[in-house]
Write a structure and sequence with these properties.
Layout (H helix, E strand, L loop, with lengths): L6 H15 L1 H11 L5 H33 L3 H21 L16 H10 L2 H13 L4 H23 L1 H41 L1
Helix pairs in contact: 1-6, 1-7, 2-7, 2-8, 3-5, 3-6, 3-7, 4-6, 4-8
């Protein structure tokens, strides 16, 4: 099994993206943005949001290297900027700014695409983290499978959280959801600092 799957890499990808994309924490935002929808419409919105987020992350995972090469951006620079972006997002999670998103007043806008699919789910933090994992891998089949399964697993968790948002919110309640969001912010800040530290070490070695 180790010849086709790297459990350590899968765990790193899954935990990092889970913390960044925060399935439990997105529930109250999702409920707010879809408050005027019926149950069937909310189910369709959850599916669309996850598909959009997955498509955006997949596109950057596949073509991120070409973009970096074209713009002459190195991996340490990407890691440092990604760490700073993650640090900003973690501050928003810790201070509660992520919970203050207001639903769009324009009913013609599909909130499943914007802002749910992107930038709330497939935001800069998730995009940069995925690109860093891809660029830091050996580009082998084992790494691609492990990273791909990690991304799919996180999106499955996102879909389940959004699909059953009413149940999740009823179980966690407002206080439980806020607590999980704060813990996610703390973990994300640690991940951000580690990314910046790795970038600094790489710059020094270069």
């Amino acid at each position: 099994m180790s010849h086709v799957f790297d459990g350590r890499l899968f765990s790193e990808v899954f935990i990092t993206l889970f913390v960044i994309m925060d399935p439990p924490g997105i529930v109250p935002i999702f409920l707010g943005l879809t408050s005027s929808m019926t149950g069937k419409q909310r189910a369709r919105a959850s599916r669309q949001a996850v598909l959009v987020a997955g498509g955006v992350i997949l596109a950057f995972a596949l073509f991120g290297q070409q973009l970096l090469s074209y713009m002459h951006i190195t991996l340490p620079a990407l890691q440092a900027s990604g760490g700073l972006l993650l640090l900003l997002i973690s501050m928003e999670l810790l201070t509660g700014k992520m919970e203050s998103v207001e639903p769009s007043s324009n009913k013609a806008v599909n909130v499943a695409l914007v802002p749910l699919g992107t930038p709330l789910l497939a935001g800069p933090g998730a995009i940069v983290a995925t690109m860093v994992f891809v660029q830091g891998s050996d580009q082998s089949t084992v790494d691609w499978v492990s990273i791909g399964l990690g991304v799919v697993a996180v999106h499955l968790c996102l879909y389940l959280a959004l699909r059953f948002a009413n149940v999740v919110h009823r179980v966690l309640r407002d206080s439980g959801t806020i607590l999980i969001t704060r813990i996610a912010g703390l973990l994300l800040s640690a991940i951000a600092v580690q990314l910046i530290a790795n970038a600094i070490r790489a710059f020094i070695k270069a």
